[in-house]
Design goal:
heterodimer; A: alpha/beta; FAD/NAD(P)-binding domain; 2 domains; seven-stranded mixed β-sheet; five-stranded parallel β-sheet; 8 helices; 20 strands; B: Glutathione S-transferase Yfyf (Class Pi), Chain A, domain 2; Rossmann fold; four-stranded parallel β-sheet; 16 helices; 8 strands
């Protein structure tokens, strides 16, 4: 058991944790970056290329880690988070204690568990995979159906676990549309003869260059976009998948058979740390994400030294996560400076009183 | 990637509550006419083989389900009739309602849900019932379909079974198509075992008895009964098309038989194979046979060693003999067309294409 003091403890060494750590370190603060996995990087370890520029995720991660030039404490299972005087005290599985006045939660999101949307057959039919599984296939260069056959037809299903009251996720995950488009283009680049159909509810392409990617997918890569809601998947004897959907523009039921189905899973709030946080009800919005998302409340949060950044506060892309992390890091910096200055003044006051 | 599993994650945690004993039994209108032996053997299995208390009341009537679904009976009337069944159950001193028909089961659930959402409707129905019959009622504490009960006691049934759903010649599990009536869980998935997408109610029974169910592309589609499709003569083509689509989808999987939990579905799987064979010249079983369509209690009873002809399996238009052979069940072919008293009844006209025995 060891007690170490810091200026700020950051929980989660994903893109936002890494970014905030670097800025706080550059500002001269002593930071402690804790990660539950064996390696830092969070979900960046899962992705192959990032939209919209198709940058390599491993390369970006390596860059972020080397930029930090600081130690990341990995394989940490946080046991408790308590307040001791003006500090947060975080203990891990080996009962090491980390203390700091500021605590930044950057625990990220978890992908929607597609097994809950049972009618889509994930976890039941072999050739129904998720966008996360597809990224792993890209990374290991192992794109194929379960029988080892090269698919000829692939369908992407948008909004799986997003905007769906039935599974308790009413919000839009904001990143799945562009992920699907990015993955479709990636697939067509490697296998130009592949026939790709995307079944979408709406296409929400609000980010920079997203619309351009969408057009490119249609014009240059001939990806088919069908406004359709999937009702169920079924498996044929040859393990191909039948999709029954409603073409919502034509207003009629329709059916296609494909070799592989990719479910574009939404982003869910990861509540694994929630039970440890003080005053939990105040920390979570009605959508389950941390914080309230209001500007004024973000500053109020700063009064108690607890901060949130990244995709734990709402569904975000890597760029948006790191942008928020930078903003929060600068706020932590001002807060720490103000706090340290106040404490020094108080100390001096006491010294002065003592001398009188 | 997650491990493949046939039971979806949500249904591993949630299981419908099924009372242990003491049921007030309400019958199906059509089942007693189509397959009277099935209704009869269900009561035998529950009361004799399993030793449970099951009360059948000659006073109860139709639930009006068919009339309701074809817009002949008003909702208020349906609700009052169902309130009367509850009143009879209350008078008999029972708290658990056991429903034999899938459509009735759906309708009871629907009405209980309406009353839960709109208590003023329940008050109104109590008033109607009191004016008409001077009866009052309690809401059932537990409402189950008869297939739920067989599911609950499937392992006891399997333990007592003389036959397993295993092909006697090959030693392989029989390949079974399970078909759940639409009104069983499609309206209220939580009221069925395993929900509406991957229902476990029949799969569980088949598994316990040693068989294997097949997940095929049209698994969840209607059998073709779909009241409006069948009862309106002008729409009857839809009914046949549905059946045709189902048979075409299940054919490549070479199923040994179909198991159903709905009286209507069983009748239509059974009858449409005969009609389609005459209309289109196609049969879907092996060697010119059809795919036998059995109800869940017929399957349970066959495994328990009941005589197929006592069970009334001769009432099926698609011959059941291929299944009896595969199971290795001893039966006397000559007794097939004997009446209950032993008197020889006439043999029905044999269809041109579909094999009959």
């Amino acid at each position: 058991m060891k007690i170490t003091d810091f200026d700020c403890i950051i929980v989660g060494a994903g893109p936002s944790g890494l970014k905030a750590a670097r800025i706080l370190k550059d500002c001269g603060h002593k930071i402690c970056l804790l990660e539950k996995e064996e390696v830092p990087g969070g979900k960046l370890n899962t992705w192959h290329e990032l939209f919209p520029h198709n940058e390599s995720a491993p390369a970006i991660l390596n860059q972020m880690i080397s930029d930090l030039e600081s130690n990341i404490i990995t394989s940490i299972k946080i046991r408790t988070i308590t307040r001791v005087a003006n500090n947060f005290s975080v203990t891990d599985q080996e009962e090491n204690e980390y203390r700091a006045p500021a605590l930044l939660i950057a625990t990220g999101f978890k992908p929607f568990d597609a097994r809950i949307k049972e009618e889509y057959g994930y976890g039941i039919y072999d050739n129904v995979i998720t966008s996360v599984d597809l990224e792993q296939m890209f990374r290991s260069n192992s794109f194929s159906t379960i029988t080892g056959k090269m698919p000829e037809k692939v369908a992407f299903i948008h909004c799986v676990g997003s905007r769906d009251i039935k599974v308790g996720s009413e919000f839009c995950s904001a990143n799945c549309c562009i992920t699907g488009i990015k993955q479709a283009i990636e697939l067509k680049k490697i296998y130009p003869s592949l026939n790709i159909t995307c079944l979408y509810m709406d296409l929400r392409l609000g980010g920079r260059l997203y619309e351009y990617c969408y057009k490119t997918a249609q014009i240059d890569y001939k990806v088919q976009f069908v406004r359709g809601r999937l009702s169920e998947t079924n498996e044929n004897p040859d393990k191909t998948i039948v999709l029954r959907y409603e073409d919502t523009l034509a207003g009629r039921p329709a059916k296609i058979t494909v070799d592989l189905v990719v479910l574009l899973v939404g982003m869910q709030p990861d509540h694994s740390i929630l039970g440890l946080l003080p005053d939990i009800d105040r920390q979570v919005g009605r959508d389950g994400f941390f914080g309230t998302g209001k500007i004024e409340n973000s500053y109020k949060n700063a009064e108690d030294g607890l901060f949130f950044a990244g995709s734990c506060t709402s569904p975000k892309s890597v760029t948006q996560s790191t942008d928020e992390a930078a903003d929060v890091a600068f706020r932590i910096n001002s807060w720490l400076n103000k706090k340290l200055k106040t404490e020094t003044t108080l100390l001096n006051d006491r010294v002065w009183i003592q001398h009188s | 990637m997650t491990k493949k599993d046939t039971i979806p994650i949500v249904w591993r945690e949630y299981q419908k509550e099924i009372a242990e004993d003491h049921y007030y039994y309400v019958r199906s209108c059509i089942r007693q006419n189509f397959f009277p032996g099935a209704e009869d053997v269900f009561i035998k299995i529950i009361s004799k083989d399993l030793g449970k208390d099951i009360y059948h009341d000659i006073e109860h009537t139709t639930c009006t389900g068919i009339g309701y679904h074809v817009d002949l009976v008003k909702m208020e009337t349906t609700m009052t009739v169902i309130a009367r069944q509850f009143a009879l159950m209350t008078e008999a001193g029972y708290k658990n309602l056991l429903v034999s028909c899938v459509t009735s089961f759906g309708l009871y659930n629907e009405i209980l849900d309406i009353w839960k959402e709109n208590p003023e409707v329940e008050d109104k129905v109590r008033e109607y019932l009191y004016k008409a019959t001077r009866k009052t009622f309690n809401i059932p504490e537990n409402l189950v379909h008869s297939s739920d009960l067989i599911y609950k006691y499937k392992d006891q049934i399997a333990a007592k079974s003389l036959y397993r759903l295993i092909n006697r010649e090959t030693g392989e599990p029989l390949r079974v198509i399970d078909h759940i009536g639409c009104h069983y869980a499609k309206m209220f998935p939580e009221k069925g075992i395993g929900g509406a997408e991957y229902p476990q109610v029949l799969t569980g029974l088949v598994k316990s008895l040693g068989g294997k169910t097949i997940d095929y592309p049209e698994r969840r589609m209607c059998c073709g009964f779909g009241f409006r499709q069948y009862f309106l003569k002008s729409a009857r083509g839809y009914s046949l098309s549905c059946g045709y689509k189902k048979f075409k989808a299940m054919e490549p999987y070479k199923p040994d038989f179909i198991i159903t939990n709905c009286p209507g579905c069983n009748f239509f799987f059974d009858r449409w194979q005969y009609v389609i064979s005459d209309m289109k010249g196609e049969t879907y079983g092996q060697d010119g046979n059809g795919i036998p369509a059995l109800t869940y209690e017929e399957v349970a009873a066959l495994c328990l060693g009941y005589d197929p002809w006592e069970l009334g399996l001769q009432m099926h238009q698609t011959a059941v003999e291929p299944v009896l052979e595969k199971l290795g069940i001893k039966y006397t072919p000559a007794d097939k067309y004997k009446g209950y008293s032993g008197m020889r009844l006439d043999k029905p006209k044999i269809p041109e294409l579909l094999k009959a025995y």
